[in-house]
Each structure stands twice: as structure tokens, then as C-alpha cells.
Backbone:
């Protein structure tokens, strides 16, 4: 008999199937004022179909659900381009301090000086790290910051009387999907620029794509191939010569933290993902926080609000302001403030020396994986990498084992799989980002697992194709899920 | 290379040496050779590193500069509601908090089933057919709903009632500014609309807390081939008829009242639900139920051909990272308060707000400028500028309401919820009286 109940079995029923009339999971105070007449019937709800469960049942159900998850807290999570580093626990506590967690965003600035000061200091620190001094933290995620950046590019050209003409944004073929999607939401046509044989920007292709119709280019640096493009300054120069702006996707900042700054390289704007580089937990898909850093020239266009510092009196005063030519507001209030607190703590804990250690160890770990695995897995580009190593499982595919199969088999060895089939320009891509949080022992056991899977691809490919066998569920039927979507519990359906 | 001072980095100097040797290089710096020399290793002006203990003390002091200990009657789009401890306890579990987007479903069933529960409860709360996995907040959810309506109708005109929160309208205008979409605001809907309108936008209760004639708006919108987009307060739905029953085609809400701390306005979660026929135009993630190879029930991300990582510039939205953990908090909250609890919370808000309003209306110099039915918020007009009244309230240990004198002369928007005890409301009344 198992000592611990099977979490798969314990989570078979959904909340509505656990519900029993009369149960409740919390208590509330009785009404302590005279009751007012209720609104007219036409305004009133007749039925409220919510579950009725006890608090203990709720805790068990969600605890068992949590057991079905793999997470940074439970193991190695080398998901490329996602920077799944360790999330320090006391930073969560800091965000929960009542002065932060209970603070209302409409509160008078004089009664919110702590939070406003924290945001201002974070703006300063991130501006310093990015080398771009204008900074707005009021963006909920990287994609929202990209949209803000593209709206800034549009407003910039319009202010110069060039807005009607510049309707195109260039995006490299290795870019994240959010880049072209954000450019489109800002009204731009997207033109894809190809990478060259080394994984860098093809300068000839770039020159021929540029024209007086181009408003800007979006560039991820280091690239999604895990490479730093040594010609990046020239790329920026070429784009600027055409009158266009360079937008940086800072998703991979972890590799160059403290070692290179986007502003120094020639970028006009960059967004930083606090939930990647600055260690805030991913939450199973969010909340994250995007921060947009821009040059002094573009700062007046930043989305609102930006926190300003005023001298005077016995101490400085911090206040939320709308930049003079702001593109507007994309978030209801100050962005994901709870995430900003965590990132602030991270930077203050590490300082410059600590940030340099981050990039050093992140890049060292990735290169260690690269050299230890390259005998078995073909490198997409055989050169030193930055924060991640991108392999192409074409040799394994020839033996009947695809990148997907390798990923699923890693689960049986106790690891979260790397990012697969991205970037799109690499066949059978396996994109491995170890981060600085992992020890050499962990990397060695991960390497051993991948080498074992390579052997299995020769000796028993069916084992790999059949994986995972040690996960809570086996491979799931995604085709039927999309063809006959079941997107919610319903009483009529047979589960 | 320096030895690591960081508790977040396990590599020791000898680990680093062993790894450098395996790579065949002498120093880590060689790995950064592609960074142009002139731009390499800038000196950063950052504060010196702090230990956990030092920084904890500093942050505690900083947080004390924020006034959060007093009873507060602020609302206007962000609300403090009671959060049962069980919600924070469960979402704080590292298995949920430190997982990524569930791209590998076999080892992400906890997150996936949690989102599936969220989609279901959102549909049940709003009386809609399908809901996505959540957006950033109520403001971006409203903007995405309107973009969705433009795509569905092929039209580029949005008509919003001017009782919609100015903040929501500001975000909507930012989102639509580059897309040749016009956002018009009207005091009231005319009997009929031209057939170029993509959607009518209604907030219910509206920015001032009052209920709108949603059914009438639905008829007017639908007669012109437009959609009705409704932004609602999810707490109000414990008592009020849900948007699906009132004729909404797309319903959105800010979910922070459902189990998230107000946290200076974020993170929150945006709820977005629609009628079945609009499914393919939904922005954001969706989780679907399916079976594994052994026939066991399981959950996966589905219909991803709407999303940016597949469709790139043709996607229904650019959203990738959303606010999944807050969606999980909403799910647990709705289950914890349950059917009777949400009704009770909504009634507590309603009755306490009406008690406060009735007492304030009886004070000399104060008036309720609007007629109709409100839920938990209501504007009052003050005998003096609201800034002065709020300063006087503050002297008596109360954080007053939102100054809306730009919209209503001497107007203050007050919000009363289940958190307010009678004594606190009575203290507000006394303080307002004294401030008159």
C-alpha cells in the first residue's frame, strides 16, 4: 500500500464534481448595518453556479495538483530563452509586506512614498544596467513592453513628419513570435530578415531590406540562437543610417548582465523581462514584468506612469508623472508592482559584483553543456555560446527519434525538457539554457541523461518514442483537444 | 574570476576551473570575446550588495512609508477585498509559483488543470460560453475585447459610454491608436447606431458604481450588427445578473478582487470570456481537456494557432506571459468562498455601501448626485474641494475616497466593501460631518 495518496487519482475530479450543497471553504462576518432594499429583480442574479467545498478538501485538491507540476523548486528546468533560475524566497516575502501588498494604487503620492521611491530606484538601476536612462516599469510583460516600444517608434516618426511613410518593421527570422505580433499591433507591416550561416544578422540582407519605409528593427541580443552578434554595433549603425530605430528584445540579458549595455551597443530601446533575468518566479506563465528602457531622446514618449524624483524640503519627493509626449497608458496602474519589488531586491542583493557573477556562471554553464554534448548532438552553430546552447537533433531524427521524443525522454530521467523547435530556423532544435543557478553536479547528471538518450536512439529508439513513462500522464492527444475543444467543466459532459 | 558571493550560485572556484578546463579555455572572459571591446565591461553605478538581513530591514522601513494601516474608502478600479489565508498558502507553493508556462503537459498537469478550472469558473461567474486563461488586468482585457470585436465585425469604430472608467478608456485608446480605430464616447446610447460600429462598451457597475441598462444596450448594439462588450466587477456578480444573461457578447473583468492582494495595482489578472462562436478570435492561452495514450484524462494548451508563437504577426494578440498565478488565486478564491460566500460578500458590500451613502446624504452640505442603483461605489458631492475634505479625514485617521472633481464638481468617489466595519463607516460619517 502506498503511504502517500496517488496525486493523479486524487485530482481526477474537478471542483464542480467535488461540490456538495451546504459545504463552504471560508467564513465571513454577519451584516452589522441595517439591510438596504435589494435592487430590482431585473438586476439580480438567480443562480450562482460556484462550487461548495470545505477548506480542507480545497487544500488537499490543490496540494495534489501541485504535485503534478515540475518547477524550479523541484528540479533542473533548462528551458531555453526562459531563464528559469532560482527564485529567492525572501523576495516573495518582501512583496508581501503590508506596506506594499495592501497599498492602493489611487492613494495620494504623499502616502505612497515607499512604493514610489522603490519604483524610482528600480528605474534608475535598470536604466544603468541597460545603458538607456529613460525607463517605464508600468508594463505587465515583455510583449506589452514591445507594444509600447513599437508605439514609441510610430510616435517618434510621426513627430518628425515621417509617420505616414515609415510603416515597416524588420524582424530577424530567429525572433520570438511576440516581436512580429507586437509590431503588427502597433500598425506596422513586418518584414523578416534572414540570419547568415554563422547565426548572425546577414548584413547584405539587412541593407537590402532597409528603405525610407522602415520605421525600426527588433533585435534580440544575445540572439535566440544563444549567440552574441559581434557586428551588432554595425547593425545598429546601418539601421540608424536608414533613419530607423533599433528596438532590443532583452529576453536574453542574463548572458551579458554587467558586461554590455544595450545603449552602448547602439540600441534606442530595450525591454527587460524581470521574470527572466531578475529572478522573479514565473508563476506557471506569469505574472512577469516588462520594463522598457529608452534613450534620453525617446524618454518623453514613454508610456505612463513614470516615477519622478523632486528635491526639496527635508527629503526628496517621489511622484508618478505622465511623460510630456507619452504614447499613453497600457496598464491600469503601475504595472506588476509585486514583481517589481522582487526584482528590486534581487539587484540590491547582488550589486555589480553579483550581477557579473550571474552572467559569468550562466555563460560558463551553457558552454560546459555545449562542449560536453557536442559529440552526441550536432550544434546548430559550432562556436562559443552565451546563456544557452542550441543543438539540432537531426542525427537522432535520422534514427527515428525526434527532438520532441528526446524532450519527453528527459522527463523520465527527471529533468524538465529544453525548449524545442525554436528558434524556427534550426531543424529539430533543442535549446538548452542552464542558468547560473545550477551546480556542476546537476549539469553532469543532465549531460549523462542526454548522452544516454543518444545511445537509446541507436539501441532502442522505441523507448525514447514511448516516453515519458514516469510522468503523471503519458503523451496527450493534442489533435483531438484542438479538433473537439473541451475548454471548461460542464454538467452534461461525461468525464 | 571572483569566487561567488551569491547564495543563488552554487559553482565554486574549483567547479569553475574544472568547467573551464573541459571547455579548453583559461578564463570566463574569453567567452565574452564577441562583445565589441569598446562596449565590454562598463562600470555600473549600482548600490553595494546587501545581505538578506540588511535589505530586509531597509525594505521594512521603506514599506512603512506607505500608509496602509488606516481604513480606506478608495476604489476606482482597484479594490481591497478579504482574501482567505488558504488562497495565499496554496498559490505560494513553489510547485505552482516556480513553474513555467505549461509547454510540456506531462509534467505541468497541476498548472494546466488549475487553468482549466479557472476557465470554467470564469464562464460560470460571467454566464458566458468560453473564457481564456487570463490577460494582464481588466484594462488590457477590455482593450483586447474591443480589438477582438473589430476583427469579428471587420469594423473600426468603438462606441463607449462615458460612464466607463477614464483609466480603462485611456488604455483602450493606447491599444487602438495605431490601428485606424476610432473610440467615441457618448453620454447615452442613441436609439439606433450606424452599422459601422464594431462594439458598444459598457461598464457595469459603471465607473461611478451605478448599474447600466445593459439589456437595452445589447439590443441597440445587436440591431446595428455590433457586439456588446461589458466590463464588470466580479465581486458584484455574487448578487447581480451576469453579463451573459444581459446580452453581452464579450465580457471582461479585473480579477484582482478575487483573491489577489491589491499590491499598488498589480499583479492582477484580466478575465475575458465570450460566446462560443467567437472562440477562434480569442486572444491568449486556452487549456483543453483530452486523454493520454492510456486513456487517462489530462489537459493541454490548445488552439494555439491563434497565438504569437505560431502565427507571429497574424496572431490574435501579442500576449505570451500572462498572469497565470493570479488566475490560480482567483480559482482558489472562488472555490473557497463558494456559492454562498460570494453572494454574502456581494451583499455585505451592497448593504454597507448603502448604509454609508444614506448617512452621508443626510449630512448637511453633502449630496448623492446620481440617481439609480449602485453596488459598492458611489460618488458624493462635498461642500468643499474633495482634496481638502480628504486632508481633514486623514487627520482623523481615515483615507477618504477618490477625488473625481474633474468629472463631478466637488465630487468624491467612495468605495465600501465587506472589509469595512460599521464603526469605521460611522467614523467616516463623523469625519465628513466635521470637515463640512
Residues:
Amino acid at each position: 500500500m502506498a503511504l502517500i495518496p496517488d496525486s493523479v487519482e486524487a485530482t481526477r475530479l474537478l471542483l464542480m464534481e467535488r461540490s456538495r450543497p451546504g459545504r463552504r471553504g471560508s467564513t465571513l462576518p454577519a451584516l452589522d448595518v441595517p439591510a438596504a432594499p435589494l435592487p430590482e429583480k431585473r438586476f439580480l442574479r438567480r443562480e450562482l453556479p460556484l462550487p461548495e467545498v470545505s477548506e480542507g478538501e480545497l487544500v488537499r485538491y490543490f496540494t495534489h495538483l501541485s504535485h503534478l507540476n515540475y518547477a524550479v523548486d523541484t528540479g533542473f528546468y533548462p528551458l531555453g530563452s526562459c531563464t528559469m533560475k532560482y527564485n529567492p524566497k525572501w523576495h516573495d516575502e518582501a512583496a508581501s509586506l503590508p506596506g506594499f501588498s495592501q497599498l492602493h494604487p489611487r492613494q495620494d503620492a504623499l502616502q505612497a512614498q515607499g512604493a514610489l521611491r522603490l519604483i524610482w530606484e528600480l528605474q534608475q538601476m535598470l536604466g544603468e544596467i541597460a545603458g538607456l536612462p529613460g525607463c517605464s516599469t508600468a508594463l505587465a510583460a515583455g510583449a506589452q513592453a514591445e507594444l509600447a516600444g513599437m508605439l514609441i517608434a510610430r510616435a517618434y516618426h510621426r513627430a518628425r513628419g515621417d509617420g505616414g511613410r515609415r510603416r515597416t518593421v524588420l524582424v530577424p527570422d530567429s525572433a520570438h513570435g511576440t516581436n512580429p505580433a507586437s509590431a503588427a499591433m502597433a500598425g506596422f507591416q513586418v518584414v523578416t530578415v534572414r540570419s547568415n550561416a554563422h547565426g548572425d544578422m546577414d548584413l547584405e540582407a539587412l541593407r537590402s531590406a532597409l528603405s525610407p519605409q522602415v520605421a525600426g528593427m527588433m533585435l534580440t541580443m544575445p540572439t535566440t540562437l544563444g549567440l552574441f552578434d559581434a557586428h551588432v554595433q554595425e547593425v545598429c549603425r546601418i539601421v540608424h543610417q536608414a533613419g530607423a530605430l533599433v528596438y532590443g528584445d532583452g529576453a536574453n540579458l542574463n548572458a551579458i548582465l554587467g558586461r554590455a549595455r544595450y545603449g552602448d551597443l547602439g540600441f534606442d530601446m530595450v525591454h527587460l523581462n524581470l521574470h527572466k533575468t531578475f529572478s522573479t518566479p514565473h508563476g506557471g506563465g506569469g505574472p512577469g514584468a516588462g520594463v522598457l528602457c529608452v534613450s534620453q531622446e525617446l524618454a518623453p514618449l514613454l508610456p505612463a506612469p513614470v516615477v519622478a524624483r523632486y528635491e526639496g524640503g527635508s527629503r526628496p519627493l517621489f511622484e508618478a508623472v505622465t511623460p510630456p509626449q507619452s504614447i499613453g497608458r497600457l496598464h491600469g496602474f503601475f504595472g506588476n508592482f509585486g514583481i517589481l519589488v522582487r526584482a528590486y531586491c534581487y539587484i540590491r542583493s547582488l550589486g555589480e559584483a553579483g550581477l557579473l557573477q550571474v552572467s559569468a556562471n550562466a555563460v560558463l554553464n551553457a558552454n560546459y553543456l555545449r562542449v560536453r554534448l557536442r559529440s552526441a548532438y550536432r550544434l546548430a552553430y559550432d562556436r562559443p555560446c552565451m546563456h544557452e546552447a542550441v543543438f539540432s537533433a537531426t542525427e537522432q531524427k535520422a534514427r527515428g527519434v525526434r527532438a520532441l521524443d528526446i524532450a519527453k525522454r528527459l522527463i523520465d530521467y527527471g529533468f524538465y525538457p529544453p525548449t524545442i523547435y525554436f528558434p524556427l530556423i534550426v531543424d529539430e532544435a533543442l535549446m538548452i539554457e542552464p542558468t547560473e543557478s545550477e551546480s556542476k553536479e546537476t549539469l553532469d547528471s543532465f549531460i549523462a541523461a542526454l548522452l544516454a538518450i543518444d545511445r537509446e536512439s541507436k539501441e532502442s529508439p522505441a523507448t525514447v518514442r514511448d516516453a515519458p513513462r514516469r510522468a503523471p500522464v503519458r503523451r496527450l492527444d493534442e489533435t483531438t483537444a484542438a479538433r473537439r475543444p473541451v475548454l471548461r467543466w460542464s454538467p452534461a459532459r461525461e468525464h | 574570476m571572483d569566487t561567488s558571493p551569491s547564495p543563488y550560485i552554487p559553482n565554486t572556484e574549483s567547479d569553475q576551473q574544472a568547467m573551464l578546463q573541459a571547455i579548453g579555455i583559461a578564463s570566463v572572459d574569453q567567452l565574452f570575446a564577441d562583445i565589441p571591446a569598446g562596449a565590454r565591461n562598463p562600470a555600473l553605478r549600482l548600490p553595494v550588495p546587501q545581505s538578506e538581513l540588511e535589505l530586509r530591514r531597509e525594505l521594512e522601513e521603506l514599506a512603512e512609508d506607505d500608509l496602509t494601516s488606516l481604513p480606506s474608502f478608495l476604489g476606482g478600479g482597484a479594490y481591497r477585498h478579504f482574501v482567505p489565508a488558504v488562497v495565499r498558502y496554496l498559490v505560494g507553493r513553489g510547485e505552482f509559483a516556480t513553474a513555467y508556462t505549461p509547454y510540456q503537459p506531462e509534467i505541468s498537469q497541476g498548472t494546466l488543470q488549475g487553468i482549466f478550472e479557472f476557465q470554467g469558473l470564469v464562464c460560470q461567474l460571467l454566464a458566458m460560453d468560453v473564457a481564456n486563461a487570463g490577460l494582464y488586468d481588466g484594462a488590457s482585457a477590455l482593450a483586447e475585447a474591443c480589438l477582438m470585436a473589430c476583427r469579428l465585425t471587420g469594423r473600426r469604430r468603438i462606441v463607449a459610454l462615458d460612464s466607463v472608467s477614464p483609466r480603462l478608456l485611456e488604455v483602450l485608446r493606447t491599444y487602438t491608436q495605431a490601428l485606424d480605430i476610432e473610440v467615441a464616447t457618448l453620454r447615452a446610447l442613441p436609439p439606433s447606431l450606424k452599422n459601422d460600429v464594431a462594439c458598444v462598451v459598457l461598464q457595469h457597475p459603471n465607473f461611478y458604481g451605478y448599474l447600466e441598462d445593459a439589456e437595452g444596450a445589447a439590443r441597440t448594439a445587436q440591431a446595428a450588427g455590433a457586439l456588446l462588450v461589458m466590463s464588470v466587477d466580479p465581486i458584484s456578480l455574487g448578487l447581480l445578473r451576469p453579463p451573459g444573461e444581459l446580452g453581452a457578447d464579450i465580457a471582461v473583468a479585473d480579477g484582482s478582487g478575487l483573491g489577489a492582494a491589491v499590491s499598488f495595482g498589480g499583479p492582477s489578472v484580466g478575465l475575458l470570456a465570450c460566446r462560443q462562436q467567437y472562440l477562434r478570435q480569442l486572444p491568449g492561452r486556452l487549456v483543453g481537456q483530452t486523454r493520454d495514450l492510456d486513456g487517462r484524462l489530462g489537459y493541454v494548451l490548445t488552439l494555439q494557432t491563434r497565438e504569437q508563437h505560431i502565427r507571429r504577426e497574424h496572431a490574435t494578440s501579442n500576449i505570451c506571459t500572462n498572469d497565470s498565478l493570479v488566475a490560480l488565486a482567483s480559482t482558489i478564491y472562488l472555490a473557497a468562498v463558494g456559492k454562498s460566500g460570494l453572494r454574502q460578500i456581494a451583499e455585505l458590500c451592497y448593504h454597507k455601501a448603502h448604509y454609508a451613502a444614506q448617512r452621508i446624504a443626510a449630512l448637511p452640505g453633502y449630496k448623492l448626485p446620481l440617481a439609480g442603483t449602485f453596488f459598492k461605489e458611489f460618488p458624493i458631492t462635498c461642500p468643499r474641494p474633495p482634496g481638502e475634505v480628504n486632508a481633514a479625514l486623514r487627520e482623523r485617521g481615515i483615507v477618504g475616497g477618490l477625488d473625481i472633481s474633474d468629472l463631478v464638481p466637488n465630487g468624491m468617489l467612495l468605495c465600501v466593501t465587506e472589509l469595512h466595519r460599521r464603526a469605521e463607516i460611522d467614523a467616516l460619517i463623523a469625519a465628513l460631518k466635521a470637515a463640512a
Summary: The radius of gyration of chain B is 25 Å. Chain B touches chain A through 207 residues (CB under 8 Å). Chain B has two domains: 86-332, 338-435.
